[in-house]
Specification:
homotetramer, Arc Repressor Mutant, subunit A, Tetracycline Repressor, domain 2, DNA-binding
Chain lengths: ~200, ~200, ~200, ~200
DNA sequence: GATGAATGAGTCTTCATTCAT
DNA sequence: AATGAATGAAGACTCATTCAT
């Protein structure tokens, strides 16, 4: 049989990945069987396996896709001009996550929790997530630096800790949102603002 | 064998739970098989099942135990006199978590991630975690209120958002610690302090 | 400890057997666990096993008890004076079975089916049932002989086949009653009468 | 492996069912494990389960197959022209059952008892059997009607009771045959004949 | 004698993966 | 290349029976 073109291959991969994504986020990583994914993809078992050689690969790909989707959405916020303040960042990012999450009934937050959990057992997945979050934090640090430089005219050096704190706020928002369910971006912004204000009272 | 004493029963339950805890945190919730737990507990399958009627019960018990252990460690911090400042709280709590986590080779943070993930599919577990975190946030709000009242002599009303933000910092610390691994309590404290300072510059 | 008196032993055996009987007829032979019986009997596992060394023994005893209960109820009919006609016998016996069956919510017919089924696998049970039914058929033959001798003044010898046919009618009644559920003793009597009448038309 | 043809599928189903049939009638319904059936079928566990999704389905299918096999054998007798007399019917049907039973070492009577027993606990099975026996009785009634109409030139209406009695004779024959083992079709015929004769003496 | 906690082989079923066609 | 039937090694859980106390 003739070789399949590269675009076809890419399209197939995307088709499978989308099916996996949907299944994973609906049923969780372990309750999703390959059969679910195979059916959802509309392909045959053999076909799916020829594109992704194992379920773990599919999990990795699905999580990586989520991360890069998130990345795409968050990037403009991190590089916005003029740069945002910390609480603006927290507000805009959490809001963006909510927006992304609710697109097409997908829930990014659920995938995030599933991914963190799975990362404990899957070396490669952990590496992927680790480097993603490190990049995220770097960009966050960059954004904070630009904001402070703009405001003060002074060049600060290390916003690493600030970035970590800010990332914590975002991640903690995701957890609370998924587990408790009663948080809002505005609440986070207000909470941080109060924290800042209280410090100087 | 005649009727076993209540303490013996409790001891057996603890023995099984400890085995489960260890397995869960080493291999994750799903990769841990009942057989692993049974072997680790040193009992027979029937004995284990007579104390915990299903794997889900064991998961629930393991997570609940983690939560209440954490609760016991954090409570004194939340009710300390004089009340702590927000950044002190973040520092002390994250440090307590680290300390608790490293006791006996257990890693509370990993169990936390596993629990959040599992809570997506296990109604009862989600309920348990939800009420735990709501309580946590309440106590956090109480601690913040006492701190502000002490400092300002004024009675503030709503620290709900502040508490949510603070809880986010703690949860986000847990995530970063488990997934990235390069955060420290001191870093969080410094990060928050910088956030506060930056706001007024 | 002092030896238990023989009456006590007998009472205990009866108590256990009754519990087993009830469980068996409610849930079937295989779905009934020893634990069910143990709980229903109000004794301990060890106690039950000291009276009946295995579940199979209990099954055997329960079926044997049913059979002898049935026997006690049917005997007077078979030895009634004056002797009954075949259709009277069918009517009275099936009616007696119905009556016996509905006592205390027990259903003799269900136990009968369960016993027949189990007899396929349990040598001893089959032997017990076999000898019971052979006796039953003998008594039936005796009753028929007395009836014919009375009527005709002649001594017939072999009513074995008649007895087998009559027993079939009774057993078939039990099956239809348990599986279909729309038969009545009167219907059987009428059916047999019609069969007889049709033969001479 | 590409898509399998419908005949192949049917052949596989038959292959599995035959294995199940053999196991069931040798060991009984509950003592037969899926593993027995799987080994007997020569397939793998997964393959068997892909054709019959549970043991209960297999039981149902085995019993249903027995019933329809029986049906096929008995039907010609019930619609024979000229119609048979009651005792002829009893004789021919029981003989047909014996013949069917001994084919290939299968024993239809044993399966019948097993099925009746199982029907007490399996709703679907009971429904299947019930409708089978009702149909059987209807056909029996039809056969009896045709016989009487032929003989008397009169149209009788209700042979329902006669049919029930005749069915009892057949079912009772099965029970006695399986449990006692010393009955023969000829004995049943003779027994019924004697019953008829005795009635008019 | 009595107790009931403990045993552990055995049950049904699932599902990631392969490979003959 | 693609198919999807087949594989078979686990998996969670049960339950008749035993025996230390």
């Amino acid at each position: 049989m003739p070789k399949i073109s590269d675009e076809k291959r890419a399209a197939r991969r995307a088709q499978i990945l989308e099916a996996a994504w949907t299944c994973f986020q609906k049923d969780g990583l372990h309750a999703t069987t390959m059969d679910h994914i195979i059916r959802a993809s509309g392909l045959s078992a053999g076909a799916v396996y020829s594109y992704y050689p194992s379920k773990d690969d599919l999990i990795l790909a699905a999580v990586a896709t989520s991360l890069s989707g998130l990345s795409a959405i968050v990037a403009p916020l991190l590089h916005a001009e003029p740069p945002m303040s910390p609480s603006q960042l927290v507000g805009e990012i959490t809001e963006a996550i909510d927006r992304f999450a609710s697109r097409d009934g997908f829930d990014l937050k659920r995938i995030a929790l599933l991914g963190w959990s799975e990362a404990q057992r899957n070396e490669q997945l952990r590496a992927t997530m680790k480097s993603f979050y490190i990049d995220f934090r770097c960009d966050l640090a960059g954004a904070l630096k630009r904001w402070r430089d703009d405001r003060t005219g002074v060049e600060y050096d290390v916003e690493a800790d600030m970035a970590a704190a800010l990332l914590s706020l975002v991640l903690g928002y995701v957890v609370q949102s998924a587990v408790i369910g009663d948080v809002s971006p505005q609440g986070m912004v207000d909470g941080l603002a109060q924290l800042e204000r209280a410090a100087v009272e």
